Amino acid sequence: MKNDLEILYEDNHIIVVVKPFNILSQSDDTKDIDMLTLIKSYLKEKYNKPGNVYLGLIHRLDRPTGGIMVFAKTSKAASRLSEQIRLNLFTKKYLAIVNGYLSEKSGVFEDYILKKEDNSSVISNLGKYAKLEYEVLKEKSNLSLVNILLHTGRHHQIRVQFASRNHPLYGDQRYGETSKKQLALFAYYLSFNHPVTKEKLEFIKYPDKVGIWKEFIC
Q1: Does residue 163 sit in helix, strand or coil?
Q2: Of 88, 84, 67, nearest to 195 (Cα)?
Q3: Residue 71 pLDDT > 60, yes or no?
Q4: What is the pLDDT of residue 49?
Q5: pLDDT-based confidence at 29, cuts 50/70/90?
Q6: How many CA atoms lie within 13 Å of 90's alpha carbon, on the beta-carbon side?
Q7: Mean pLDDT, range 65-92, rounded to an integer
Q8: Cα–Cα distance, 100 to 176 (Å, whole number)
């Protein structure tokens, strides 16, 4: 699959790619294919690198979520990008299709989210602060296309915050959907400062017009 990588940008310091739906960000106990391994393989082959290839994981997307990710090709770039994450200097926007019509067509969700031992998350005062902004873009067949600006990156945050308000994401069986469809969540926008040049970089990639997305993406 490494030859099928969708690369949005690459230089000596970073590589920005589109993670397909249902691919892991990094390996886990399942041993299924993951983005970190795929990109390392691509770099090893492209540059004919001997031994292990360095690649720094800066942020993650849930397995069923697709969208834009940046990886660091040097430890210095990894450190500087991670610091931007810590300082909330990354801008991340998502498109989601949720069940139902929201009474407020735009707004802010603020909660505390607790990650549980079973790898799910719940709204709980014992959890970490979570915030997002949303705007409804389109409504059709009791589904809503929502634009989301993520302010914090909590575990399953978007999925939990919408599900807790009785608007679970389309295809999200873990948090209240019943249909066995693909989760409709895509990280379409990412911006940050280049770790070396300091230039502001912006990347946009919309989900392909397949499945439920073809009903909402023009």
Answers
A1: helix
A2: 84
A3: yes
A4: 86
A5: confident
A6: 24
A7: 97
A8: 13
Tokens standing for residue 91: 């801008």
Pairing of the two strands 200-204 and 143-150 = unpaired
Interatomic CA distance for residues 191 and 201, integer angstroms:
5
With vertex at residue 18, the alpha carbon angle to CA 128 and CA 54, rounded to the nearest 5 degrees, is 80
* Pair of tokens at residue 89: 């200097």
Question: Which amino acid is present at 16?
Answer: V
Structure tokens, 73 = 């090709």
Tokens found for residue 37:
């391994």
Bridge partner residues of 95 (DSSP): 147, 186
pLDDT of residue 218: 78
C-alpha distances in angstroms, 42 versus 37, 47, 65, 82? 9, 8, 22, 23
Find the helix or strand (DSSP H, E) in which 83 lies: helix 75-86
Percentage of the chain exceeding pLDDT 90 = 90
Asked if 202 and 191 count as a contact pair (C-beta separation under 8 A), the reply is yes
User: Which helix or strand (DSSP H or E) is residue 39 part of?
Assistant: helix 35-46
- Tell me the average pLDDT of the chain: 95
Give CA–CA dist 123/22, Å, rounded: 25
Question: Beta-carbon neighbour count of residue 70 at 10 Å?
Answer: 22
pLDDT at 91: 98
Give the closest residue to 77 by CA, choosing from 172, 167, 192, 178. 192
What lies within 8 Å, CB to CB, of 198 at 6+ separation is none
- DSSP for residue 88: T
- How far is it, in rounded angstroms, from Cα 115 to Cα 138? 31
